[in-house]
Design a protein that fits this description.
It is a single chain. With about 140 residues, this protein is mainly α. The protein contains seven helices and no strands. The mean pLDDT is about 85.
Length: about 140
Amino acid sequence: MSMYQAHKENREVETIVTVEVISKERARSVAQNSLYWKWVTIIGGKDGNTKEQQHTILKRAHLVRIYQRDDLETAETVLVLNEAKKHLSAQEYERLAQGVARLFSTTKASTKQMGEYLDEIYHFYNAQGLFLPQPSDYQWIKGDI
C-alpha cells in the first residue's frame, strides 16, 4: 500500500505494483507472519527466550489446540502424547512434548487458523499486562475482513 501511495503522490517515479487476489483459506499471509514474528521477538525478550524457543512455547500453548480441533492427525498425536505422559518421567515427557511442538508449523496454518492463533496470543499476553503492538489494519491482517 505504501508503494502505491508513493507512486500516486509522485507520478515521475515509475513503480510497478502487483496486486494478488487470493482465497481467504490459503496459507497464512505474509502480513500475519510478519506480525507474528514481531510478537515472538517481543515476548521472547520479555521472558528471556530466543525467538525459536518462544516460537516453540507459543505453538505448544496455542497453535496445537487449533490444529487439534481442525486436523485428525494432530488430534491423534495429542492423544498419544497424553497417554505417554502416564508412562514417562516428567523430564522425559517434557522433552518429547517439546520435540513434537517443534514439528507443528505455522506455515501449514490457513489465514483463518493463523488469525485465531494471533488472537489467542494477543489476548493471553494482554491479560498478563504485556500489550503487544496491534497495527491499524489488524483486522485485515487477522483475516477478518
